[in-house]
Amino acid sequence: PCITIFCYCHTPDDRKALSGVPDRSSPPCNCSAADWKYRHAGLMALSAIGEGCHQQMEGILNEIVNFVLLFLQDPGTLLPLLTHGLLFQHPRVRYAACNAVGQMATDFAPGFQKKFHEKVIAALLQTMEDQGNQRVQAHAAAALINFTEDCPKSLLIPYLDSLVKHLHSIMVLKLQELIQKGTKLVLEQVVTSIASVADTAEENFVPYYDLFMPSLKHIVENAVQKELRLLRGKTIECISLIGLAVGKEKDASDVMQLLLKTQTDFSDMEDDDPQISYMISAWARMCKILGKEFQQYLPVVMGPLMKTASIKPEVALLDTQDMENMSDDDGWEFVNLGDQQSFGIKTAGLEEKSTACQMLVCYAKELKEGFVEYTEQVVKLMCIEVMGDGCLNNEHFEELGGILKAKLEEHFKNQELRQVKRQDEDYDEHVEESLQDEDDNDVYILTKVSDILHSIFSSYKEKVLPWFEQLLPLIVNLICPHRPWPDRQWGLCIFDDVIEHCSPASFKYAEYFLRPMLQYVCDSSPEVRQAAAYGLGVMAQYGGDNYRPFCTEALPLLVRVIQSADAKTKENINATENCISAVGKMMKFKPDCVNVEEVLPHWLSWLPLHEDKEEAVQTFNYLCDLIESNHPIVLGPNNTNLPKIFSIIAEGEMHEAIKHDDPCAKRLANVVRQVQTSGGLWAECIAQLSPEQQAAIQELLNSA
């Protein structure tokens, strides 16, 4: 399909001249300037298929990227390359090329960034200089945002000076255009690009703080018109991200005073004002920078925050005619309920409400006792997990149990009703589409049920099990073999929490979940496999002696999943990494249940983990345990395995598997430093690494 799409982009002679791709039959295509639509369609199609055709495209990604980047270039630069209709690129073709680059940067991250950083950054920066086409310029900036968001820090740093130079010059120019002409499209994207670069570069952005702040402050102080709300919100985000990146190395009070000025007009903002969510997130970032010093600002922050967190969405049950009278522009979204009725919800403010609730959690975690006076207000909204044991009384539990039970019963009833509708004589693809929407809504509610139970179990541990028993038959029903995979996934997640937080008392309920958990680790759904594998891992880590025989039984099932041919594909990698982590937990916490000497070499060959960050930390910590104890299988005779260990650590660093402020990163750096003092062994280990891996090791040593 990818080659077919190229046929829309080029004439046969172009394809042959550019890459040697064999000519394929394609729809008639005139690649003159008048037929730019074919090239535009081909590039937009490439943007759309990346996620679904990930495996098929990966093998020819280098060829695809080279093709796409040609369409970014100015007409003059194409002259030496092409003579068959691509000389005069239509701006919409260049826009589509930016779109394709940005989407591939997301779909194929971080491998895309590692392979193509040099050519992509250069091409996007060049395209951002196109002053004649603002939409192209803005979309190039948007593609740069996608690229930098998933770019490993070590890869971005060498380009930092060039990025800063381009972004600053464009920002200054576009700020002048805003003042003189009122145009803001490019400036909005450039401001977000600056924020993204600062977020990735972290402390390396400190030298550029004074370069950007005057212009950013000017925007916040002067962009007060309604049509500039989004620009102002993005600028607030940018300032706070720069503040978070540079930390206390610059005076955080300066940023705080600027944000305090913007806070004064908060009460006058409409519910759907985009500034609200940016403002709330900015406060949370400043809280992370200042720590307990942020407590002094709570009286100013909490009022607007609680107001936003308390937003209640407007809902309505409408017939078809009423729904047609309400446009999507009014902020309403609808779900078809059948029988010419629809459920409508006004979504204005919901994103801001979600952001506010997340920020309340952030404040509670960062400030702890400094947040106590707001506890009662917050408990009425949320934060069971953060507030901990004792925040809910018996009345609260009784009410909560009734709500959760009703939601689960409704979930099963709705599924039955949908199956009945599928047997109706009026059933067709349009009905199915509506039923799928209903199912998605039900699954979303199920995820929230799981989230609430996670908070309850993590806070109250085994004390809450008697209360949980009223829900037990419904949760057991979720993991029955005939249930859809989302039911089984979330049912397993709930039992995972029971094992993790309520063991060894959890074994009382093992008859309900153990057999399904063992069975589902080999399920066809990767989401179900992941939930089952995680459960087996915490069973080894937290379960008591009663779980030992099941660890032995689970091991070959986990190995089968890990060694399957498609284990590392994008859709399977998270499930596979949870299986690898579970094997590590069995060796660490239940070593008498597995043959460690036999399994350990295989486990080492499966490392590192990098997609599931939490499990990556678990496995790297166990690896450090083994190295620090001089385990002979891990180190090998005469330390012959150390180059392999260095490779594992380097790959983990390149994939940003562990944050540098995590204690595990320091342990890994200490392992490297110990070898560094050994002269010849250090040289041998480094010599077997690629240049990228060597740079990653150096980055770890510099940062951890």
From TrEMBL:
Record protein name field:
Importin subunit beta-1/Transportin-1-like TPR repeats domain-containing protein
Q: Pfam families given for it?
A: HEAT (PF02985), Importin_rep_5 (PF18816), Importin_rep_6 (PF18829), TPR_IMB1 (PF25574)
Q: Specify whether rRNA processing is a keyword of the entry.
A: no
**Domain spans labelled Importin subunit beta-1/Transportin-1-like TPR repeats:** 168-314
State the species of origin. Cervus elaphus hippelaphus (European red deer)
Main location group = cytoplasm
Gene3D superfamilies for the chain:
Leucine-rich Repeat Variant (1.25.10.10)
Checking PANTHER family in the record gives:
IMPORTIN BETA (PTHR10527)
Query: Where does this one sit in the cell?
Result: Cytoplasm
Q: Which GO terms describe its cellular component?
A: cytoplasm; nucleus
State the UniProt keywords alphabetically: Acetylation, Cytoplasm, Protein transport, Repeat, Transport
Biological process terms from the Gene Ontology for this record are: protein import into nucleus
Cite the SUPFAM superfamilies for this sequence.
ARM repeat
From the record, what ranges are coiled-coil? Answer: none
Q: Which domain of life is it from?
A: Eukaryota
Q: Does the keyword Protein transport apply?
A: yes
